[in-house]
Amino acid sequence: MIDGVVIERHKWFASEGNKGDLMPEFFRGKGWDEFQVNLNTAFPRMVKGKHMHLLKEETFFCVKGNLLLHLEDSRDGSKTRGERQTVNFSESEGVSVMIPPGVWHSVENLGNQTGFFLELSNRFFNPQDEFRAPFDPAVDKQK
Q1: Per residue of the chain (143 residues), what is the pLDDT tens digit?
Q2: Residue 143 has what pLDDT?
Q3: How far apart are the C-alpha atoms of 25 and 143, rounded to whole Å?
Q4: In a 3-state reduction of DSSP, which class is residue 79?
Q5: Can you list the positions of beta strands (E) in the chain?
Q6: Which DSSP category does 139 fall into?
Q7: DSSP 10-35
Q8: Separation of first and last alpha carbons in the chain
Q9: What is the C-alpha to C-alpha distance for residues 43 and 49, in angstroms, rounded to an integer?
Q10: pTM of the model
Q11: What angle do CA 66, 112, 88 make, to 5 degrees?
């Protein structure tokens, strides 16, 4: 497991009258002064955006779909530098994944429908803090 990556399991609560469910306090306790929330899509059978940030921390949560998160630690001085990890964060899993700065990440949609996931970030998007690389299945799908 990559040092600093935090995986949290969340619980759904049935609403009164069985009209829908609620996942309360999903964002509680982050302690961020500013934050940005994005709703992302991932097209069927595609891998979206291998990239990393030097400053931005991101938390992903799948709203709809069968998604797999690919991670790779590239941080200098990290005890897990060079390690790879995959996390199933599909809607049925009910997990959020916090990705620290310096960890490469991409989202793979394993399903046949468009997937949707929330991205909660500790700072606003800055294109100068985003670094991209091509996703290579022969390398990046290794654990």
Answers
A1: 999 999 988 877 777 777 777 776 666 556 777 788 899 999 999 999 899 999 999 999 999 999 999 999 999 999 999 999 999 988 888 889 999 999 999 999 999 999 999 999 988 889 999 999 988 887 777 65
A2: 56
A3: 31
A4: coil
A5: 6-9, 13-14, 21-22, 36-42, 47-52, 58-64, 67-73, 84-88, 95-99, 103-109, 115-121, 131-132
A6: H
A7: ---EEPGGGS-EE-TTTTTT---SS-
A8: 10
A9: 12
A10: 0.88
A11: 15
Q: 134: how many CB neighbours lie within 10 A of its CB?
A: 8
Coil, helix or strand at residue 137: helix
Question: Which has the closest alpha carbon to 134: 68, 73, 58, 47?
Answer: 47
CA dist 104 and 55 (Å) reads 13
The domains located in the chain, with CATH, are 6-17+30-133 (2.60.120.10)
Cα 28 to Cα 20, 35, 56, 73, distances in angstroms: 21, 13, 18, 26
Task: Please provide residue 71's backbone torsions phi and psi, each rounded to the nearest 5 degrees.
Answer: -125, 145
Would residue 4 be called left, alpha or beta, if left means φ above 0 and alpha means ψ between -120 and 50 degrees? left
